[in-house]
Amino acid sequence: MKRKNLTFIEEELYHLKSEQPLPVMVFIYGGSFRSGEARRESYGPDYFMHDDIVLVTFNYRVCALGFLSFADPALKIPAMLGSKIKYSP
Questions:
Q1: What is the Cα–Cα distance from 80 to 64, expressed in whole angstroms?
Q2: Spatial separation of the C-alpha atoms in residues 60 and 69, rounded to whole Å
Q3: What are the angstrom distances between the C-alpha of 27 and each of 2, 69, 77?
Q4: What's the pLDDT score for residue 72?
Q5: How far apart are CA 83 and CA 87, in angstroms?
Q6: I need a labelling partner for 53 at 20 to 30 A (CA). Which of 13, 40, 47, 61 fits?
Q7: Which of 73, 30, 24, 28 has its CA nearest to residue 53?
Q8: Which distant-in-sequence residues (6+ apart) come within 8 Å of 61 by Cβ?
Q9: What is the distance between the alpha carbons of residues 61 and 37, in angstroms, rounded to a whole number?
Q10: Contact, 53 vs 23, CB < 8 A?
Q11: pLDDT, tens digit, 9 for 90 and up, residues 13-28
């Protein structure tokens, strides 16, 4: 069975009632690359929904499984280079 290379894009567009720009809050959870998540239950928008604020959260790789590599030429899966990323202060 041949797989197609698909890209998924999810966009949610809302028609705002306000003509004025709204403040945007971006939340990046901590956890020292060991644990964390941006779940609705933990960091949901419920508090901000009453005050016209746009909340942006996202998930990123954490822990050993976040940098897991299946680099195998037979499988044609590229290596995860997350562990080789250099961070500068």
A1: 11
A2: 16
A3: 39, 28, 32
A4: 63
A5: 11
A6: 61
A7: 24
A8: 33, 67, 82
A9: 9
A10: yes
A11: 666 666 788 888 887 7
CA 3 – CA 16 distance, rounded (Å): 39
65 phi-psi bin (left φ>0, alpha ψ -120 to 50, beta other) = alpha
| Token digits of residue 6 | 């698909």
- Residue (of 56, 53, 59) closest to 39 by Cα position: 59
CB 43 within 8 A of CB 64: no
Q: What gap in Å lies between CA 65 and CA 37, rounded to an integer?
A: 14
What's the 3-state SS for 18-60? CCCCCCEEEECCCCCCCCCCCCHHHHCCCCHHHCCCEEEECCC
pTM over 0.90: no
